[in-house]
Write a structure and sequence with these properties.
It is a single chain. Helices cover 22% and strands 22% of the residues. Strand 3 and strand 4 form a beta hairpin.
Amino acid sequence: MFFFNFTSNEHISGGLFIALYDEESLKLYLNRGLYIFRMKPINNDKISPQSRHFSVLADYACSREGTDVFFFIKRKIYYGGKIYGNKEIGSFYINGLNSPLGRKTSANLFWDESPRYEATETPGVFKVKDSKKAQPFIFQFTKTDDTGKYITSDDLYFQLGKTYPYPLPSNSMQGLGFCTLTPGEVKELKSLILKSENKIDYFNCEKIIKNGSETLFQEGLVNVTDDLVNEAQLEFTILSSLKPFSDFLTDDYILCRQVPICPFKPMNMDRADICLYSLKNPIKNGTIPNVIIELKKDKSGATAKAYNQVVRYLHWIESITSEEEFYQISAFLISPEVGNIKRKKVDLSYEEKIKIFCINSHSFIKLQ
C-alpha cells in the first residue's frame, strides 16, 4: 500500500511549478492559499479525444498532501506553500458543476472569479477575451513563513545547470504553463528561497473569498477499467491512485508526469508519461526516476514502437548514472490491452528491466 509520508523525510517532497501571467493573480492566490487553472467548461459528459481536459486533470492528480507549490512569473519564482487534502491519492478539490466530475459529485461552487472578468449567466463561467472559461479544479495549500518569498529564475537555473547536466522539468517547460518538479528540484528551490530576503506583499489583493463547502477528490470517482477517450485519461487515472499496482510498485514515491528523459534538445524532447521517485532510495538527490512508466491507451498502441521508446529512456539514463544507480531503475509499459510484441522487432538491450503489464488481465505479458 502506498503512503506518501512527507514528514518521515523532510528533505524529500514533490513540487508543482505553475506559470502565472499577472501579479494580481499571484497576490490573490498567495493570500487565499489556492490555485485554479482556467479551462473551457465541459457541459457534456462525453469528452472529446482532442480535449485537454484529462491532461489538466493528470497534472492535478500528481499532487499529494505535502507537495510544495511554486509560482513562476516575470523571471521570478515565488513560494506558495504545501498542498493539503489527500495523502495517498490525488489531492485537489472539485469546484462547481462545470465538469463531469463536478456533476458526478454535485460539487458546490466554492470559488468564483467571475467578478475579475466578464460574468455569464452560468455560475462559475466567465469570459476572457470572448472565450468562456471555468475553474472546475482547485489546489489548496497551507501557507508558511516562507510564503511569498522569491528568487530570480536565473538563481535556480544556474544552480541546476552546475549540479545536474541533464534536462529536468523546470528547465525544459518551454511552452507549458504547469509542470511537476522532481524531489531534487524542490530541494534546490527551497534551499534558495529559504536564504532569500525578498518577499512580495500579498496581503492587499482582490476581494474574492471562498464560499460554502468544498468537495475533495475521492477514491472511486475513476477506475483503471473505465472506457478511455484518450491516453491522458489513462495517465490521470493511474496518477490519481497507484493502489491498483501496489503488488509490484511497493515503495513510497513522489510522482511526476511528462518528464524529459533525453539529452538537451532545442525541441521535441523525449518525455516519459509517468516517473516515480523513491523516498527511501533517491537517485542523484531525487532527479533521476527509480521507475519509468510508459502508457498506451489501446491494444494497437502497445507495440514495438512504444517498447523501443522505453529502451531510449533507459539508454540515456544509463549514460548519466553509475552502475549501482542504474541497477535500481525499472521500467513498465502499461496498457489496458497488450498486443503481441515480437522480439525481433525490438531492441533487447534492457529486456530484464522492462516489464509489460496488461491492466484488464492484471498480468505481465512476455515478448513473443
